[in-house]
Design goal:
Blueprint: H1 10-23, H2 39-53, H3 58-68
């Protein structure tokens, strides 16, 4: 009698992968990302950018950002 090979579900593959990582000592990590399309995110980002621009150190902060940024010139 021939055995029928069943493919593993995605859930099972992920579980096995996570089990292997845990066995190697890697802790599980969850990353939460903000929904940048949400109106509340846009409002908070705008409010924070205004606060940074109005700070006493705005020019120093911008100089730092410019120094560590690629700038896209290359």
């Amino acid at each position: 009698m021939a055995s029928v090979s069943q493919s593993k579900t995605s859930r099972l593959k992920v579980r096995e992968h996570r089990d292997r990582l845990r066995a190697e000592g890697w802790p599980p990590i969850r990353t939460w990302m903000a929904d940048v399309r949400a109106p509340s995110f846009r409002a908070a980002a705008h409010r924070q950018s205004l606060a940074v621009a109005a700070s006493a150190r705005a020019s120093e902060d911008q100089a730092f950002i410019d120094a560590v940024s690629d700038g896209g010139d290359e």
